[in-house]
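Notes on consecutive records. When two proteins share a document, each keeps its own sequence and its own C-alpha cell line. Never mix them. Below: protein one.
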Amino acid sequence: MFARSPSFSALLQGPDHRFALTNPAYQQLIGHRDVIGLTVREALPEVGAQGFVDLLDRVFATGEPFVGKNIEIVLQRAPGGAPETRFLDFVCQPIRDASGQVAWIFVEGTDSTEARATAKALQASERYIRLLMNSSAEAFYAVDRTGVTTLCNATFLRTMGFAREEDAIGRRLHDVIHYSRPDGSHYDAGDCPIYKCASEGTEAHLTDEMFFRVDGAPVPVEYWVRPIIDGGERTGAVCTFVDITERRRAEDALRASEARMRELNVNLERLVIERNQERGKTWRLSPDLLGALNSQGYFETSNPAWEAVLGWSEAEVASMSIFELLHPDDLEHTRAGFNLTQIGQPAIRFENRYRCKDGSYRWISWCGIPDEALVYCTGRDVTAEKAAQAELATAQEALRQSQKMEALGQLTGGIAHDFNNILTGIIGSLDMIRRRLVANRPDDLPRFMDAATTSAQRAAALTHRLLAFARRQSLDTKPNDVNRVLASMEDLLLRTIGERIELQMHLADELWTAFADVNQLESALLNLAINARDAMPDGGRLTIETANTRLDEAYTLRTEDVAPGDYVVVSVSDTGAGMSPDVAAKAIDPFFTTKPVGAGTGLGLSMIYGFAKQSRGHLRIYSEVGRGTSVKLYLARALHDAVTIDAAIVETPRGQGETILVVEDDATVRLLIVEVLDELGYNHLAAPDARVAIPLLQSDRRIDLLVTDVGLPHINGRQLAEIGRESRPDLKVLFVTGYAENATFRGGFLDPGMDMLTKPFALDALGAKIREMIER
C-alpha cells in the first residue's frame, strides 16, 4: 500500500531525520534521488534554508503533528536543472517507540501545484463569467425548479430597481418581478412562462410583456426563458430580457448579446457537468475507503474501494455495524473514538483492524469529520506500513542485542585481564609467605604481606571503578561546596602533576552548592588531573575552573539522560596532545586507553562518567589534536547549604562491653568482623543469615548495634533491619555492602539511626564507624 499510494510519503528516523522509507510518489516529487540512509539536510540541501528542517526538529522535539496546506517549496528536481516551485499539502506525524519517545516522523501529503493552478484557473473563469454577466446590457435572471431566485446580473438589478443582489437572491419569482400580458391581465402562477419553464421545461420567447420595477414603474420588455439542464436533469430556468423602449437603437447590441448569452449558457452547463463528473470519478477511483457513518454505527454510503480492499460490497457494508467488522482487540478503543465523534470531535489518524470477507484482517487508518448527523470518513489501508514498522523494530532490537554482546565481550575481556594480574599478585604473595614460614625465614614476610595487600587494594579499586561506570556504587550524596573541595585538594594536585606543569585555579564567586559524594568527587578530580598530567609529558598548563550554568531544554533534548535545570560545572583543561574525534568518542568506554600496556586500566574516565550520571549530572569532553583537552563535569545544583567535612579519625576507639549482632553470609568476612570486635572489647553475636538472626532480635538479649550485610539470602539486610525494629524501635543498624542495587543512593535507603560501610573496608574504619554509631 505504501508503494502504491498516490500520495507522496516518507518515513524519517531519529532526531537528525534520516530517510528510512519513501514511496514512488515521493521519489517523483524530489527528482528520483537516492535518499535512503541520508538525513533530510544531506539529501535535500535546498530545503534547509526554507525552514523545513526546523519544522521537522519542532515536530520531533514537541511530539505534536504538523498539518500544512499549500506550502510553497523550491526543489532541485533535475540534476543541473532550474529550481522548481511546488505547492504541497502534507502532514508531519510523529511516531513513538515502545517507551513513548518520538523515534520517527511520517510525512505524507499531495503535490497540489497542478490542482492549485486548476483552482486558480477555475476562479479566474468564474470571475470572467461574472464579469461578462455584469457587463451585459441584457438583464439576466435564473430560478430553480420551485421558482426561487438563484442568480441575477447587475443589469437586472439596475433595470428592476434593486439596490443589492441580496434583495433578489433567495426570494420567489413573484416577490421579485411583477409583470403582465400586453392586454394588462396578470398571469396565474401556473401560467407564468418562467414558472412553467422551470417546472416543465417549456421554453418561451415573449416580445411584448410588461415588467414593473420595485417603485411600480412599468418597463416594457422582450424576454426569453429557457430551462437549465445539469447532466440530463432540469434544475431550473434562466430568463434574459431587454427594455424594448430602446429596441431600435439596441437591435445590433441585442443580437450580439444573444449570441454571447447562448455561449455563456453552454459554458455554464459544461462547467457544472464537468464538476459533477470530477466528483464522481474521485468517489469511484479513490483507493481509500470512503463513506458516511450514521449515529448507529452503520455506513449509509460506501465507495468501490471497500470491495477492492476488504472484499465487501456496498450492500454488505450497509448491512453490518462497524463493530461487527472490527478485530476483538480493537473494539474498546474504537467505541471510545466513535463516541467522541458523536459529540463533534474529529478522529484523525485513528487506527484499527477491519475483517476482510476472507476472514483476514487489515489495518485501516481513519480520518472522520462529524457534520450534522453523519461522520464523513476516509480510511487508508496501512497494513503494509504496519508490517514495515514491525520489521524495522525487529531489526533494531537485533542491532541493540549485537551491540550489547560486543560491549559485554570487551568488558569481560578487560576485567579478566586486570583481575588475573591482581590475583597473581595475591596468590603469589600468599604462596611466598607460606614457603617462608615452612623454611622458618620470617624476615621477608612483611614485604610479601605488603605486596598481597597492595594487589587486594588494586582489586577493590577496580571493582569500585566498575561500579562507578555502571552507576551502581553506593553514594553518600550531600550538598557540597565545590570551591572548598578544590581548595583543600590544591596541595595534593600540585604534588600529583609535578613541577613541570603549571596549575591555575579560577573559582567562581557565589558558586552554588552541588549534590555530590565528596569522596567520589575528590577521586574524579584527581583522576582528571592525572590524565591531564599524562597528556603533557613535556610540561604545560592545567586549568581548573568552576561556574554556575543552566542547561535548557533545547540542549537536553540533544543529550542522553540529562534533565534541564541548574548545574555547577567543573572544567579541567590541559594544553597537552589532545584527542582525535574517534578517540574522544571512545574515551569513556571501559578499558579503553591510549596509554602503553601496564600504564593504565582505561577505567578512569568511565568511572567519572558513571559517577556524574549516578549523581544526576553530566560529563562532556572537548578535545582537539595538538591543542589539548577540556573535560566538563556538571553537578546538579543543591538548594541547601553545604555540609561540613569531618576530620579523619586518627586511631580506632575501643568498646566498653557493648553487644553487637553480626549477620554476614560469607564465613571469612564474618570471622574477620568478629575478631575485630573481640580485639576492640565488644561482646558479639554472629549469624549467617536472617533466619538465625531474627530469633535473636526478637529475644530479650541485649543488642546495642546490628551489623548486617545488605545482600543476604532469603531476606535481605534492609528487610531484616525493619523486622528487628518491630521489637526494638531504637535499634541502630550498620549496613555493610559490596554492591546492592537499591542502596546506590543512601538518602533513599537509610532511615534515622542507620548508616552504611562499603566493602572492602579497613578494619580500623569498621571499628571507628561502630563506635561512632553507638555514641551517636
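Protein two starts on the next line and is unrelated to protein one.
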Amino acid sequence: MSGGIVIGSAIMGRDITVHLPRETPRAVAGLPGRVANFTGRDVQLGELLDLLRPEAAGRQGPAAALITGLAGVGKTELVLQAAAQATTVPGWFLGGVLFVDLFGYDRELRVPPERVLGSWLRALGVADADIPADPQARAGLYRSVLSACAEHGHRVLVVIDNASSADQVRPLLPSDECNAVLITSRHTLDVGARLYDLDVLAPQAAVTLIRGALQHARGPHDTRVDDEPGQAERIAEFCGHLPLALQICAALLADTPTRPLASLADSLADAHSRLDHLTREDRAVRAAFDLSHQHLERVSPSCARLFRLLPLNPGPDIATAAVARLSDADETTAEIMLQDLARAHLIEPAGTWGRWRLHDLLRLYADERGHACADADQSSAARARLLEYYTTTAASADTHLVEHPARPPSPHFRDRAQALSWLDAEHVNLILAAAFAPAQGHPDVTAVLATCLAEFCALRGHFDEMILLAGVALPVCRLAGDREGEGWAQYLLGMAVMLPGRPKEAIELFQKAAELFREAGAGQGEATALTALTTALTSAGRLRQAKKAYRRALAAYRKTGDRSAEGRAMSVDAVRLGMMGQDDKAMATLHRGLAICRETGDRLGEGRMLGLLGLVQGRMGQQRQGIESLEQAISVFRQIGDRRVEGEIQCDLGEALVRMGRFAPAVQALEEAAACFAETGWRSHERRLSAALGVALHGLGRYEQATDVLRQAIAADREHDDQGQAVLLDSLGAALLATQHYEEAAGHLRQSITISQDTGDRSLEAESLNRLGLALRMTGPEEDAAAAFHRAIAIFGELRDCERQAIVLTNLGSHLLASGRPEQAVLPLQQALSLCQDTGSIPVKSAATQLLKTARSQTPERPGEVDPGVGSIS
C-alpha cells in the first residue's frame, strides 16, 4: 500500500506493513485538555521546545526530558503545553504524539507498560494480530516501528505522564535519537533523560494564575484579584505558590462570585484546617499528597516514617545530623533516606548541602500523618532525641564563645569559627525549640538554650530573639524555682536592650540579674551581670555608680578565680575612665588587662583590649601607635572569626585614619566594616560608618558621593532623633563646609548641636560648635561665629581634650585675624601653641604659628588682609 512502512522479520520471520496517517490532528487531539491561563513557566517551556526541535535530535543524545517535582506543582500542565506547541509546528512531529497517564502513584489505577505498548502499537498502525503477547517482544516491535517512522520523516513525540518508577518508563522509551519523549514523575528516575526540576511558582506568577483562572471562569468583569491584591497575595502564600492549590482556590472563588478574597484568605489562615479548605470536587491537595505517601509506604516504610517525623523540627529546615538523631539512625543512613525523599520530591535541599526543608503544604500534610501515626512512629521519643541534640550541641558551641577556666572548649567543634558556623545555621531552630519546648513537656530545654545562646545572640545582634528567649525562659525558671536560670534570663533581657543603644533601660535588668545570681550563689553569673551593669551605667553617663559596680564585679571575679574574665573586665573600666577624661589611667588599665589576657591565652579579651587601646592612644595624640593597636585588634578578631567586632574596629580604624587625613585607607577600612556588618546583620554602627565614610570620600575629592552617603543615611534614620542622627548631621555639615555650602552647613550643624545637648554628648556638641563657627565666619554675624568657637573651647577644656581645644583656639584666632582684630587673635593662638606642646599635633602647631606671626606683624591701625580660610581646621 502506498505510504506503508515494512518492518522486516520483526516477529516470527514475518514482515509487518504499517500504514502511517498523512496528517496528525487525530493524535494531537488525543492530548488531555490544557488550562487556558498557563503562566509562570516561560523559561521552562522554552527549554523544552528547544530540546524538541528536529535539528536538536541526535546532537546530545535522545531528545528525552524528565520533568520532576512535588505533587501539584504543574508538571503535567507544562508537558502538555510543550507537546501542544511542538506538534503544531510544521515539520516537527509528522508522526503525531503518543500520550499516556501511567497513574504511577495510584495502586488501583496504575497502568502496566505492556498495556500501553499495545495501545500505542495500534495507534501506529500495527494490527492486533501482529502485536506479540510477550512484553519484551512488544517493546522491541514498538521501538522498531518508531525508528522506521523517524527514518521516513514521521517523527513521533512520546508523552509519558505520572510515572512512579524507571521500570514503568523504560519499555516505553524510543531507542533512536530522532523521536522525542517527555516524562513526568514525582521521583527523579534514572532513565537517561535530561532532568528538569520544577519548582513552585514565583509569588507574582501565582497571583497571575489566580486572576487568569478566575476570569477564564467568570469573564474579565471579575476584578476581585485587582480589587484585593493584598488578599490575593495572602492566598498565594497560604497555598505555598503550588499551582494545584492555586487552581482549587480560583475554582472556589469562581463558584461564588460574591465571595471576597479576604474571606477565602481568612479561612486558609488556620494552618490546622488549611488542607481541608484546599478541596473542590475531584481535586484536593491532600489527595495528591496521599498518593505520594502511600507509594512511599509501599517502597520504603522507614522513609515514610522519617517524612512524618520531620515536622517535629520546629524551624524551617533541618540538618542531616539532626535528622539522624530524630530518626535514631546514623548519619549515613539518614542521608540516604533524605536523598530518597528528595528524589520523591517530598523534601528539597535548603540552600546549602546537608540541610533540607518541606514545602509548607507538605509540612502540614506530614504533620497530619505524623499525628495519626504518632504511637507507631514513636514521635515523643524522636522529639526528645532532637531537643537533646540541640541543647547539648548548643552548649558545646557556647564553650568556644565564652572562655572559662573551669569549662574548656568542647572537642565537638574544631574551633570557634566552626562553632559559630553551626550556630549561624541552627539558631532559628534553637530559638523555636526554646519557645515551644515548655508546651511539649521539656521546660528544661528552654532554660538551657536561653543560657547557651546569650553570647551568640549578642554577638550577631539577634536582639528580638534574645527578648523572645528571655520571655519564655523567665516563667519557666520562676516556676521551677531556678534562681540562677532566672538571673540569666534577666541578663539576656538587659543585653537585648543595651546593645542596640538603650543602656538606661538595661540598668535595672542587670541589677536584678546580679541580685538573682547572688541569691543562687552563682558567683560567675553575678560577676558577669555586674560587668554588664558597669557598661550600662557608663554608657548612661552615671560614672560614679559605674565605678562602684566595677569594683563589685572585680571582687566577684577574684572570688571565682576567673583571672581571664577579670582581665577582660578591665576594658569596661577603661571606657569609664576615658569618659571622665582620664586617658592616662585608661591606658594603664588597658595595658594591665592586656597583659592578663595574653597570660591566660584569652584571645577575645586581647582583641577587645587592643581595640580600646587604639582609641585611647588616638585621643592622646599617639596616632601611629593607635593605628597599630587597631590593626592588631582586627587581626585577632579575624583569626577567631568574630566578624561583628572586626567590623566595629574597622570602623574605629576608618575614623582614626580620617582624623589623620589618610582618606584612601580610611575608605578601604570603612568599606570592609560595611561588609562585616552586612554579613552579620549588625546595624548599630551604620550611622558612625556613614559619617566617617562621608568625610573620607570628601577628603578624596569625591564631594557628591560624600554628601549623597550622608544625606541617604540621615533620610533613612529620621525616626531616630538621637545621638546617631547628630553624628550624621555633624558630618554632613563638615562636608558642606568643605564645598562652601555655608548656609546649608550651618543649618545641619545647629540641628546636631540641639540633639547633642539633649543626649548629653558634650564632645559632639563641641565638634559641631567648632564647625558652626567656621560656617558663620563666612555668612555672619561675626560675633555669632566667635561665640560658637568660645563655647566649643570651653567644652573641650572641661573634657580635657587638649588637641581639639587647640584646633578651635586656632580657628578662633584665624577668625579674629580675618575680622580685623589681630590684637585679639594673639592670645587664643598663643594658647593653641601651648597646648600643641602637650599633644604634639604638628598640623595645628604649624597653622597656629603662621597665624600668630601674621597677627603680631599687624597693627590695630592697619590690619593686613587675611584669607578667611587660612588656618581653619574643621
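For the record: The domain at 720-800 is CATH 1.25.40.10 (Serine Threonine Protein Phosphatase 5, Tetratricopeptide repeat).
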